[in-house]
Amino acid sequence: MRRRDVMNRQTKMPEYKLASRMFHPEPTVVRVGNHEIGNGSATVIAGPCSVESREQIIQVAAQLKEFGAHMLRGGAFKPRTSPYAFQGLGETGLQYLAEASELTGLPIVSEIMDPSDVPVASEYIQVIQIGARNMQNYPLLKAVGRLTKPILLKRGLTATIDEWLLAAEYILHEGNANVILCERAIRTFNNSRTRNTLDLSAIPVIKDLSHLPIIIDPSHGTGVARYVPSMSLASLAAGADGLILEVHPTPDQAVSDGAQSLTPSEFNLLMRQVHHYHAATRSFLLEVGAHG
To answer: Which enzyme class, named as a word (predicted)?
Structure first.
């Protein structure tokens, strides 16, 4: 056995045993409707940061569908740093998302923040997102763990890989095996050009330690729309199972995160690159895996 294999091999079961590859050697594939995450394809989830109106979400959902997105994201419950910022439309926003989903066939990915949101969210959302600020909201993790719906678990702003996997363990321990990890960048000393520091090294580390699929959020990861395409392609080159991207019809008028949102035309161009790039990098990664 090569020295690097010996060094990387886990010698004992970690605390996050259910999330560990030692417990579950084969990669987990999470099914959302007719789509699978973690089966070797590149899943693309896209949509605005916030659902602002019925017209907005229906318009952008139709464009995303046309350009090849697999799922529709949009925030109805918004965790905001300032109490004066837009907090989301709540259940009305979920209703608009549901209408857009019905018209396009795109499953909904949306965030909730409190265990009390679970019943109403379950009526509308196909994939429930746990945001970075709630990664260690243990009552919420337990509540969604009692569902069968897929859960998209974002990494906390200052969370280590082990802390992230232990958060996933809370969900798995309650019986829900449909967990998708999402790297959305961490807070570091860098505050000059990007919003956060996108930790692409988390991709191979997660692939080594865990069987759970991992997608990347380059929108929050950079906070700058023009950096999103390159970080999207870099994520796929590192072996990510997909991307979650913010797309807004008019980013300069967005009520939240306009600076990091792609326009639909920019998203269309990126999707063409994603198809070509993923096919090339996937074959390379498989070859490296076979001979590495």
So the answer is: transferase
